[in-house]
Design a protein that fits this description.
The protein is α/β, with parallel strands linked by helices and 314 residues long. Among the domains are: 1-99, Arc Repressor Mutant, subunit A (Orthogonal Bundle); 175-279, Periplasmic binding protein-like II (D-Maltodextrin-Binding Protein, domain 2), CATH 3.40.190.10. It has helices at 3-30, 33-40, 44-58, 74-100, 114-119, 121-131, 144-153, 197-200, 223-230, 240-248, 258-261, 293-313; strands at 63-66, 69-72, 106-112, 135-141, 158-162, 170-184, 205-208, 233-237, 254-257, 268-285.
Length: 314
């Protein structure tokens, strides 16, 4: 076999290995061969064959097929993160080569807490797309604890999230967002300059819950506030927009950051808490130094534009 044909075969084998890794990683995330096949543009049997071939080559069973979906085995839980790292490394090499040749390409996986995703991300993504039209962005919206898990697992490159949920990585502060008590227009509390715990104890309260359990998720509230308000919960919501709409319809009061409520003040009143509360929102990553070129470009875009965008929204 001559050198040219040997090199070609090695390149083709690497491409196929990466496709198998990609299929395995996708299945580990969505627990579905059918969805993975659709997303990758393959037939279901084609993806099944890929996984069977991969497991045979590695001599390790990666998945258990159950009636509820495709689940990782114990060995799969250890190996899939390595495959994800291999795919990221390959993508990083390609991005660096494109940059050397004067082009900015690649894919950035971004996580954002609900308030940032709803209010800030559309404008930031628009600015980024205009500057880097060949870089693809994939946005995942979740609560801060789940964003931290996705950072740790390597499923996203970075997250715009609350500082309290950023252990084990690097955090870059962007803005400080004041937490206020929100209520429908004309509510008795609207006349106050600030509300204390005693002021709100008798009003029905609407709270956020996490994605996967029924625990209250007002993580920014001091324990005394959390205890008092939790005893008077009228409704629970899984997202900020539902909570705001329920408050606007007079179903109760709630605590919410000013970043999230800025677009809804024609329907709401917002009163500062006493003592005042704030949340620090910023960029969170395992390591900003090791991010791909495209991810670093996104970080730069956010740092240049986030504060200015917040000033415009005031």
């Amino acid at each position: 076999m001559n050198e040219i044909s040997c090199t070609y075969e090695m390149k083709e084998r690497r491409k196929m290995d990466n496709k198998k890794y990609e299929a395995a990683v996708r299945i580990s995330e969505n627990h579905s061969i059918t969805k993975t096949a659709h997303d990758m543009g393959y037939s279901q049997s084609g993806v099944t064959q890929m996984i069977n071939s991969l497991e045979e080559e590695l001599e390790v069973r990666l998945f258990n097929r159950t009636h509820t979906g495709v689940l990782l085995t114990h060995n799969g839980e250890m190996i899939i993160p390595l495959m994800r790292d291999e795919l990221k490394c390959d993508e990083k090499i390609r991005e660096e080569c494109s940059r050397v040749n004067g082009r900015e390409t690649g894919t950035v996986y971004i996580g954002a807490m609900h308030s940032v995703s709803a209010e800030a991300m559309p404008a930031l993504l628009e600015i980024f797309r205009k500057k880097y039209p060949e870089i693809q962005t994939i946005l995942v919206t979740a609560d801060p604890p789940f964003l931290r898990e996705m950072i740790e697992d390597g499923r996203i490159d970075m997250a715009l999230t609350e500082k309290k949920e950023t252990e084990g990585g690097e955090f870059r502060k962007l803005i400080v967002d004041e937490i206020k008590m929100i209520m429908p227009k004309g509510h008795p509390l609207s006349r106050r300059k600030a509300v204390t715990l005693d002021n709100v104890a008798d009003y029905p309260f609407i709270t956020l819950i996490m994605d996967t359990d029924a625990h209250s998720y007002n993580y920014w509230l001091p324990p005394a506030w959390e205890k008092t308000l939790s005893s008077n919960i009228a409704y629970t919501c899984e997202d900020d927009l539902s909570l705001i709409n329920m408050v606007a319809h007079g179903l109760g009061i709630a605590v919410e950051g000013t970043l999230m409520t800025g677009s809804f003040m024609d329907r709401l009143d917002a009163v500062p808490l006493s003592p005042k509360l704030h949340q620090t929102i910023g960029l969170y990553a395992k390591s900003f130094k090791t991010l791909s070129p495209s991810a670093k470009s996104f970080v730069e875009c956010v740092e240049e534009n986030m504060e200015a965008w917040c000033e415009i929204k005031k």
